Automatic annotation (TrEMBL), chain B:
Start and end residues of each Carrier domain: 20-74
Organism, scientific name: Thalassomonas actiniarum
Protein's name according to its UniProt entry: Acyl carrier protein
InterPro entries: ACP-like_sf, PP-bd_ACP
């Protein structure tokens, strides 16, 4: 990767997509003030916008200063309560509410948009959380057409993203109250991890993963659909996709690995995972699988890593899985794996290796 | 702070994180699959916060974090405690 590509990558990372829209309620989502005489229904265009965002895989939540129960009941009677994940209806600062939502959903604040009719609230959020995009409730008409709200692809996984997060919330609640050790909890999930070569149907999601995944991404290289399709068919590359499910449902396709195959060396160009599987041990299992494969093929295993301020976790994941620095080319770190150390897969996550 | 105190604090952190699991000081946290990406990160942040030094990329080594004793050894070295148990 040369300097030009590196700066193009930085530019790409600046053009963030919105992953979660947080709505105010009174005079934003609905018309009127709930605790002062009730409401006159949803504001025009709101329902259509909510549905559009949902189909695009953009999550939605609420930050409203209201009484929790009546507001929730109102959402239920409007038949829209299930659209909102972790709604925050309280009298605290909205910035604090948005931070709680980001923490609960485990996505970065710079992928949040906040819609409110009151300048005071938008300014409070903009001041405390400058990375959140604040939108005036008067600008709803143009919102769906704004670039930040248009993901490059609508995939099978994006259309059911809300359901997947709801399954996550259920899992997390169980995890929080689980009496016993972490590994018994993981065992209780009955996870199934599948690792296989990407097929054509995986490519949209694969491209989406390269664009959406920032934290658990070793290099941040983004590839177009056509490039990925070429890698998939190339003799010189392996393009692997990992998917995970457990007893609560599917997590969808959550991991992607691109390996450049050379004579005696495999180079991992990209290894990324969805943030949603951060605590599932998937990274270690993926790397262990690659180590086994490299050992079988009798090749050295190298990996490229482009450290930035967000992906330190992947640096650690490599380091803690027997990679050490071989050389540095500018910001680019080349790792080599010590294949002499072997590990079994953890009992709770033995991958099924597909074709 | 001595080696024993570092080991006790590290043990507390690890057991708490693993929801009260009984973890021996020599148990390989990585080999047993206890370590995931988030835990690895939390462990490093814990060491930085608790013992007051920055963990450089060069220090992010399997051998420095593989077990509670390894963490205590590593932190002890960084804090200049010299010989350890």
């Amino acid at each position: 990767m040369n300097m030009e590509q590196a700066s193009a990558l930085e530019e790409e990372q600046r053009q963030r997509l919105v992953k979660c829209v947080v709505w105010d309620l009174d005079n934003t989502l609905w018309d009127g003030t709930l605790l002062e005489g009730g409401i006159k229904g949803l504001r025009p265009g709101v329902l259509a916008l909510m549905k559009t965002l949902d189909q695009r895989g953009i999550l939605q939540s609420i930050a409203s200063k209201n009484e929790h129960r009546p507001a929730l009941e109102q959402l239920q009677s409007l038949g829209i309560a299930e659209y909102f994940l972790c709604p925050q209806i309280n009298w605290g600062a909205k910035s604090a509410s948005i931070e709680r939502i980001a923490k609960a959903l485990n996505i970065g604040l710079d992928t949040f948009a906040f819609i409110d009719d009151q300048a005071f609230e938008r300014e409070e959020v903009a001041f405390s959380l400058p990375r959140v995009l604040c939108v005036d409730a008067n600008e709803l008409d143009s919102l769906a057409a704004r670039a930040e709200f248009i993901p490059r692809f609508i995939t099978e996984d994006s259309a059911r993203r809300r359901q997947m997060y709801m399954a996550d919330i259920k899992r997390n609640a169980v995890e929080e109250h689980f009496e016993g050790a972490q590994d018994s909890f993981l065992a209780s999930l009955k996870m199934k991890l599948r690792i296989g070569h990407a097929c054509e149907a995986d490519l949209k999601r694969a491209e989406e993963l390269t664009l959406r995944t920032n934290q658990l991404n070793t290099t941040g290289y983004t590839y177009s659909y056509d490039e990925l399709n070429a890698f998939r068919q190339s003799e010189g590359h392996h393009l692997l996709v990992a998917s995970l499910e457990d007893k609560y449902g599917t997590y969808g396709k959550i991991g992607l690995v691109l390996i450049a195959l050379e004579q005696d060396v495999w180079v991992i160009k990209l290894l990324l995972m969805s943030c949603r599987v951060m605590t599932r041990g998937v990274g270690t299992v993926l790397i262990n699988h690659l180590r086994n494969q490299a050992r079988e093929q009798g090749v050295r295993l190298l990996a490229e890593m482009l450290p930035n301020d967000r992906n330190r976790m992947m640096y650690m994941t490599y380091k803690f899985n027997h990679f050490s620095e071989l050389e540095k080319q500018g910001r680019l770190v080349i790792f080599e794996n010590d294949l002499s150390i072997t590990h079994d897969f953890p009992a709770y996550l033995i991958p099924e290796i597909g074709e | 702070m001595n080696f024993e105190e570092i080991a006790v604090k590290s043990h507390e952190f690890v057991s708490q994180y693993l929801n009260g699991a009984e973890v021996g000081r020599e148990v390989d946290l990585f080999a047993t699959g206890m370590v995931n990406s988030l835990f690895a990160m939390q462990l490093v942040l814990f060491v930085e916060r608790e013992f007051g030094f920055a963990v450089d990329n060069e220090d992010l080594d399997y051998d420095n974090f593989r077990s509670i004793n390894a963490i205590a050894d590593f932190a002890g070295r960084k804090l200049g405690l010299g010989a350890t148990a």
